[in-house]
Amino acid sequence: MEQLQGQFTQHFSNNNKFPVNDRRDSIKLAQINFEKFNAQKTFEALSYLVTVMSQKQLIDKLLKSYDKGLLQDYLHTIELANLESFDADSFAKHLQLMRQDRRQVKNLALILDVLARNIDLKEILRQLLQEPSLKNQYHYRHKETGKLLLRFLDSNSEEPLPEDGRGVKSKMVV
Hints:
Strand content: under 5%
C-alpha cells in the first residue's frame, strides 16, 4: 500500500504534469520550411500543371506548324529568291526570331510529353476529389466545449470566459 501511495502521490503531483523525455530515442521532429513548402502552394502548382497540360494538343499542333509550315516557307523563299536583290540580313533576323519562338514551343512540348507519359493527372484529380479529408469541416464534439473554444477565436465576444478556464461542466456519479 505504501508503494502504491507513493506512485499515486507522484502521479498526481503538479511536478509530474509535463515530464520531459531525456531518453536518447525521443522523437525528433522533422524541420520543414512551411513558408516554402505548403499545401496551398502545392495545390497552386498542381492547378498550373493541369492548366498547361490542357494546352498540350495546341502546343503540339503549333510545333508542327513551325516544323512543317513556317520552316518550309522560309526555305522556299531562299529557293525562289533572286539573291542579287535579296535582303539577307532582314531575312536572317526574321528566321532567327521564328526559330527562337519555335524553340520555346519545342521546350514546352518536350516537358509536356514527358509529363503526359509519366503522370496521370486525371487519376490524381479523381483521387483528390474523393479524399474525405478535403470534404470535411471540423465540428466540435462537445457542445459546451465547442462554444467555449469558439469564444477563444472571437476576441470581440461580449460573453466573459469562465474564471477557471474550463467551461466544461461534468457530473461525477458515484
